[in-house]
Amino acid sequence: MKDLLESFTAHLLLERSLSPNTVEGYSVDVRHLIDFLDDKGIEIRDVTETDLHQLLATLRDLDISPRSQARMIAGMRAFFRFLILEKEIEKDPAELLESPTLPRELPDVLSVEEIDAMIAAIPQEKEEALRNEAIIETLYGSGLRVSELVDARISRMSLSDGLLIVEGKGSKQRMVPLSPTSVELIEKWLPQRNRLNIKPAGQDVIFLNRRGAPLTRVMVFYIIRDLARMAGIRKKVSPHTLRHSFATHLLEGGANLRAIQEMLGHESIATTELYLHLDRSRLRRELLTHHPHYRGK
Fold first, then answer.
1. Helix, strand and coil in the chain, % to nearest 5
2. Helix axes 239-253, 272-290, angle to 10 degrees
3. pLDDT category, 272, cuts 50, 70, 90?
4. What average pLDDT does range 153-180 have in this prediction?
5. Which secondary structure element, helix H or strand E, spans residue 240, and what is its range?
6. Confidence (pTM)
7. Active centre residues (catalytic)
8. Which residues in 72-212 belong to E strands, given as ranges?
9. CA-CA distances (angstroms) from residue 71 to 59, 60, 67, 126?
10. For position 287, what pLDDT does the model report?
């Protein structure tokens, strides 16, 4: 399969004269396809349209933007046309795939530059500056739902390992890696947090308001919305936008689809202990390799 991918890349560059960026994008898309097929135990010559629809359904479940889905379909079509030219397959399983309808407005996915601009817009003279920066880094660096962020617990966090256990939908627990930047910011925030007059409900909660009570989802929404406006971002930005961006940037960076699913909490987990044992090192490697805010750390 590796030889086929290398030949496909050469075909795009030399025979179709596509731009290096397009070639790189298509190559990433095909690697996602190959990972998906390997996970299902499907040989490339046996791929059906149904298999490809399952892959696209996975992308929708991951909240991947329609624009990114459309690009992946284009990459798969180019790959299967190449396989027919090379006589590796006889029928194109992607021939009847329909691209998703693209919204007229830009999808609610932020660029890395826009996220950095939001962080830079935080007024440093305010007491909550450090907390708000840690919130953005944790939402974007770990792909948390806002409900998971406001309920994040000190007792479920290991800063030395860069790990946090959160409780998602259906009271299912999962482990998420924390970026080195998130760890650094939380370490700085905790002494400031501990000087607050902490209410009983907030004793074990990481992120508190100025009165020592847990933040609400609405509070976090206003924090993110206001920082986006201050950064000059015209898109509709919410905490979930950072989760969308987390998934989309990992996908476009080449991260494994199964790893993204697990980090977003879309996999059924029998026990936290089993999940920690099986996936901790692999998930962290995926983030360190493919997430924009982890690279080079």
1. 60, 5, 35
2. 70
3. very low
4. 89
5. helix 239-253
6. 0.64
7. 145, 169, 240, 243, 266, 275
8. 157-158, 163-167, 173-177
9. 12, 14, 6, 42
10. 64
